[in-house]
Amino acid sequence: MSKSKAIYTTGGQRLSRSMQQGGLWLNIVAGSLGMVWVAVAMGIPITMFMECLGASAVMIGMIVTIQQLSTIVQVPAALFAERLSARKPFWMAMAIPHRLLWVVPALLPFVVARQSSAAAWITLGMVAVSWLLAQAATPLWYSWMADLVPERTRGRFWGIRQSVTMAAHLLGMWGAGWLLDRFPDPRREDGSFLGFSIVFGLAALMGALDIAVHGLVPEPRNAPSEMDEPIGRRILAPLKSADFRWLTWAFGFWFFTLGLTGSFGILYLTRVFHVSYIHLSLIMISASLGTVVSGFFWGQLMDLIGVRAFGTVMMLLAPTVGAAWFLFQDTTVSLFLPFAGSVTLPQPIAILLVVNFLAGALFSGVGLSQLNLLGALAPQKGRTMAMAVHWTLVGGLGALGPLAGGLITDWLQLHPIGAHLPGGLQLGFMHVLILFQTGVVWFLALPCMLKINRQAQELTIPFLVGNPLRAASTVYGLMRLSGAVSPQERVQAVRNLSPESENVAVSDLVAKLDDPHSDVREEAAFALGRIGTVEAISALTEKLEEPGADLAPQIARALRRSRDPRSVDALMGKLSDDDRETLTESVRALGEIGDRRAAAPLLEVLHNADDDKVVSASSEALARLGEMAAIYEIIPRLKATRNPALKRSMAMAVGDLLGKHDGFYTLFIKEERNRGVEVARVLGKIQKWLRKNRQALGAEKVSSLQQKLLNLETAYEEENLTLAPTLLLELAIALASLKFGLTAAGNMQTLTEALLWRDPRLGTGFWYLHLLGEEWQGEKWGQRD
Q1: Rounded to whole angstroms, how far apart are CA atoms 517 and 394?
Q2: Residues 186 and 114: beta-carbon distance below 8 Å
Q3: 454/475 Cα distance (integer angstroms)
Q4: Which long-range contacts (C-beta less than 8 Å, at least 24 apart) are formed by 276-280?
Q5: What does the pLDDT look like over 545-581, one tens digit per residue?
Q6: What is the C-alpha to C-alpha distance for residues 406 and 429, in angstroms, rounded to an integer?
């Protein structure tokens, strides 16, 4: 099997497995610290801070719009970064001030008058500068991580990372909500912004620590870029890939919908139901819990069923959770919450506590698929630029979402819709935004995802969506395969793979060809033979060609099932093997594949073989290849053997060579069941042909042939083994005369040679009939049986 290519750091040190794994865990630790900043800067606190400052819905939406529009700096930043020998120093120089700028809203209430438009605009300006710095660093980080994370476990790593970091995000949200509720609302006379100051100050500190810990993560050497290539060509290079383009469009539309609803759900809940900060924190914590719990499962599932398939299903399901917003009523309900006991909550919050858990799982699944697809589809050369181009285009589309959401929200606040929902509430801006979001995802983002080429080891979308129960069973089987630890469990998991899941499991099965237990290795080989993809066949042939391969007979048997011509060379290499089982299975596989390249080596095997099993296998294989020369080797051995099973096997091979494949076998089996019936049917077909052509052939000739057929049938029924072959030969001579105008007036050798020249199979058949009828008796051939 091929070995992985060595990776070196920017300092020239070989990146060992332990260094790589250590770096990945440091990345998770750093990300957990950074998630406290994310909970504040991209969550409830910044939205409520702007609300308390008196900002409009459009201004609040502009927070996300600015984040998305700032992605435009990624391209020039990438152009600059590609000239650097290392990405990390430049990334840190951008990222640290980006995080520390969030001290500004912590100090702002003490500098600017409360609820002033100036404070809101200063906050927006701070957000703009912070995100410009962040976006300048973003493509470098993604490029860095794409090089660091092993491709084989990419899905699992991002899933684990998401679960761990979202747990930190959960704590950050809860802590921020708890702190903000400890202080009176700033919009009241006795209100205070001190809670916001503490929250933003802590977020800035934790965010800066995130960057500092990231400094310890090793950076693999960056693939060099062609600096003399025109800038425009370097920018457009990633877009030459159709898959990369469709990925970018799909997530551009997806981010548009995220911004479309984004912060406006919080506004709707506070304006209509007057919920508290802690209530908002609870529903965000529920979403985070969904992300945490699903992350461990999603990563493994993505690696099993394929990233594109996983992302498509998640994108299909995610908008459906928005239906919960149409069920709200202006009432309260009592719930029992862990560690809190019985609590009374607004009905919308109670619903969202349940629904947001599912929403967090589904939406995080879409995000994970983006990270994995981007890492897989971005070219190795110029990867930093590819990341920049992707996020710039995605950000450009995403920036329109919150702007559109803000405009729709402000317009509907001034021009409310008169319709009411079943629960009695008026149809509001959030309901319109959810309907708009669902339409964009299903009719724009999803079609783009489906345009991305399906990978070889990926379950199909129709199968996953069309039959959920069967799909769930298939996924369970795949998870059993990867999770089984005992030999018995592994063998059973391989055997229980469904046809739909086998293709997806190729990588796991290839790895199991080296399993310590022989039963597991054998089952993996048989499964790969059933699958028969390029990767499966390549793995089997490579393993077969290994010196002293203990699985050689099983692999040959598996390749026989696959019938793939690509395995012919490897199988022919085993025709000189000393092991009887390996030689026999290799011969049978070559016969089943039917590649004529194997004819000459198989003839040599038959000629030299002194083992009945090898003789039988090579006879059958040559018959499948239609190698007429084999009949001259088979017949002497057929008469010489005393093994009845081998005798029958070689007789079938002769029948295959002289007639249709498996035709004589079918006749033989039917005759064993009911002697004379099948022979009568075959002879009846000849009688029917003679009657049909009676005028063209001449009545006298036809009558003579019909009589010969009747005599032959009688001799056969009477088991007259001397007369029947003679009648067969006479009938064959007569039919040859009708077809070619040849007769046996000279001698049989001349007739046979003439027929061999015109039709090798027919000529060989004449030789065999002559042998049966006239030359079988004697020392050379023994007693006719």
Answers
A1: 49
A2: yes
A3: 18
A4: 276/181, 277/44, 277/48, 277/177, 277/180, 277/181, 278/177, 278/178, 278/181, 279/345, 279/346, 279/349, 280/44, 280/48, 280/177
A5: 888 778 899 999 999 988 899 999 999 999 988 889 9
A6: 10
Q: Which 3 state secondary structure label does DSSP give 760?
A: helix
Find residue 14's DSSP bridge partners.
8
Distance in angstroms (rounded) separating the CA atoms of residues 209 and 194: 23
The CA distance from 437 to 432, in Å, is: 9
Question: How is the chain split among helix, strand and coil, in percent rounded to 5?
Answer: 75, 0, 20
Tokens of 49: 């801070």
Q: Report the predicted TM-score, pTM, of the whole model to 2 decimal places.
A: 0.63
Return the DSSP state at 443. Answer: I
Which residues have C-beta within 8 Å of that of residue 236, sequence separation ≥ 6? none
3 state SS of 496: coil
pLDDT at residue number 432? 93
Taking every pair of C-alpha atoms in the chain, what is the biggest distance, in angstroms? 128
Q: Which two tokens stand for residue 226?
A: 């062609």
Number of Cα atoms under 13 Å in the Cβ half of residue 716: 18
Q: Average pLDDT, whole number, for the chain?
A: 84
The arithmetic mean of pLDDT across residues 342-359, rounded, is: 90
From the CB of residue 125, how many other CB atoms can be counted at a distance below 10 Å?
A: 12
pLDDT number for residue 339? 61
Q: Of 711, 220, 702, 306, which is closest to residue 504 (Cα–Cα)?
A: 306
Q: What is the DSSP letter of 341?
A: E
Whole-angstrom Cα distance, residue 581 to residue 602?
15
Angle among Cα 89, 93, 98 to the nearest 5 degrees reads 140
Q: Is 261 left (phi over 0), alpha (psi -120 to 50) or beta?
A: alpha
Q: What is the 3-state secondary structure (H, E, C) of 263-306?
A: CHHHHHHHHHHCCCHHHHHHHHHHHHHHHHHHHHHHHHHHHHHC
- pLDDT surpasses 90 at 111: no
Q: 2-20 burial, b if ≥16 CB within 10 A, otherwise e?
A: eeeeebebbeeeebeeebe
Rg of the chain (C-alpha set): 39
- The pair phi, psi for residue 674, each rounded to 5°, is -150, 90
pLDDT of residue 401: 87
Collect all residues with Cβ–Cβ distance below 8 Å to 765 and sequence separation of at least 6. 658, 732
Supply 83's token pair: 């000239």
Residue 499, number of CB atoms within 10 A of its CB: 9
**Whole-number Å distance between alpha carbons of 152 and 510:** 13
Nearest Cα residue to 175 out of 31, 339, 357, 35: 35
Structure tokens at 540: 């089997």
Closest CA to 772 of 723, 704, 734: 723
- State how far the alpha carbon of 10 is from the alpha carbons of 85, 221, 321, in Å: 7, 5, 45
3-state SS, 49-80, equals HHHHCCCCHHHHHHHHHHHHHHHHHHHHHHHH
User: Cβ contacts of residue 293 below 8 Å, gap of 6+?
Assistant: 163, 357, 361
Closest CA to 139 of 387, 329, 488: 387
Q: How many CB atoms neighbour CB 776 within 10 A?
A: 18
- Contact criterion met (CB below 8 Å) for 210 and 99: yes
